[in-house]
C-alpha cells in the first residue's frame, strides 16, 4: 500500500484532548505513521488536503447487518419477546445485499468498523448465509468483525414449553450441539480480506444449553466472543431456578477479555464488578433498548468500574442510520438512571471503547501504529460540537486502512443496486409474508401478554 498524507484544518490529538490546527496525518501500509502540526511532519506519498476536522472513525459494536429496516417488512419495534416472535414472519433476504447496504450506510454516518452478528443455519450449507453476509460487509470496504452466533433453545419461548407457553410455536430447528466444533472451525478458517476478522459466540445465554456454551468455549481459542447479555428483564430468570445467563457464561469459561456483551441492561452491581474484573467489554445500544422497551442500561455504573464500553446501533434504525443520534441517546438516557455521561465519554465509547470491543489493538485514536480509519467532519473542532450537533450529513470523507471509502458524503461503492434487489425480493414475498404475519399474530400477542405478566 502506498503512502498518503492527509493535511486537515484540524486533527484530533491521539488522546482526544485537543484539536491540532493545520495538522497532518502520514499513512503508510494502512496505518498512521506520524501525526502532528503540518510544519513538523514529513509528508509522504499522495497529498490529500481537506477543510474539515479529522477524527478517528466510529465503531458500531453491535449490528445484525440488516440493510432494509424491519418496519419495511411490516415488523415494527414492540415489546422485546413479542418482537423476537414476530421475526418469524420476516422475509429471507439475500444476506450479501443486506450486509452491503447496511455497511455502506454505516460508513456514510462515520462508522469505520462494525461488529456484525450472523447466525449459523440449522441445516443444508450451514455457513452459506453467514458467508454471504461476510462478503457483503467486506464489499463496502468497512472494517468488520463478523461473529457467527449459535443457539440451541427456542428463541420465541422464554421458558420450557409448559403451561400457556406451550401455545407459542417453536422457532424452528437448531444446529445439533455435536456439530458446533466442526462448524466453528470451518467458519474461523474462512478466508477474509485484511480488514475483516471472525469471531463466534452464543446468540444469548438464555437461548443456549450448557452443552452449547461449553462447545463454544472449546472451539474459541483466542478468537473474539460476542453475545446478547441480559437484554430484557426476562433474560435474567429465563429458566426459573437456574443460574442466570451471566453465571452460565462464566461457568463455561466465556467471561473474560475476549468477550463483548451487547445491551447489558439487567445487571446488578456485583455482576458489573465481576464483568469489570473479567475485562469483558459491554456494548450500549440505547436506541434499540428504547425501541424494544427493555429498559435503560446503567452506563455510568459501567464507566465507574472501568468496564470497556462501546456503542451499538443494533440495526434498529428506521431510515438510514445516524450514529450521532445513538451518541446523543446514550447521553440523554444516562441522565435518567444515574450520572449523565459526558460528550467526551460517549465519544470515547464510540472510538476507543468500540475498538476494544472488536479487539482492534490501539484502535480509535489517531496515533502512530493505529489503523488509519479516519473521518473528515464538517463541524467545529470540539468534541461537544461533534456529539451535540453532528449528523450523518456532516460526514464528508471516510478512510478505512488509509483508503477512501466515502467521498462527498457518499459511499464509493454504490449500494443502490443492492437496495433495489432487496426491495424486489420484499415485493415478491409480500403476499406470502402477509399470510405469515397473520398466522403468527396470535402467538405474538400471546407472547406479549405472557412476557408482560412476567416482566
Ligand atoms: Zn442484537
Question: How would you portray this structure in words?
Answer:
By secondary structure, the protein is α/β, with parallel strands linked by helices. The chain has a domain at 56-373: TIM Barrel (Alpha-Beta Barrel). Helix content is 36%, strand content 22%. The protein is built from 14 helices and 16 strands. The strands form two sheets. Strands 3-2-1-4-13-14-15-16 form an eight-stranded mixed beta sheet, with helices on one face. Strands 5-6-7-8-9-10-11-12 form an eight-stranded parallel beta sheet. Helix 2 packs across helix 14. The longest helix is centred in the C-terminal third of the chain and has 39 residues, at 416-454. The model has no long low-confidence stretch (mean pLDDT 94).
Oligomer: single chain
Ligand set = zinc ion
What helical percentage do the residues reach?
25-40%
Order of neighbouring strands in the sheet with most strands: 3-2-1-4-13-14-15-16
| Order of helix and strand elements from N to C terminus | EEEEEHHEHEHEHEHHEHEHHEHHEHEEEH
- Proportion of residues in β-strands: 15-25%
| Fold-level CATH name of the domain at 56-373 | TIM Barrel
Structural class by helix and strand composition: alpha/beta
* Structure summary, number of beta strands: 16
CATH superfamily caption of the domain at 56-373: Metal-dependent hydrolases
Shape: globular
> What separation lies between the terminal Cα atoms?
54 Å
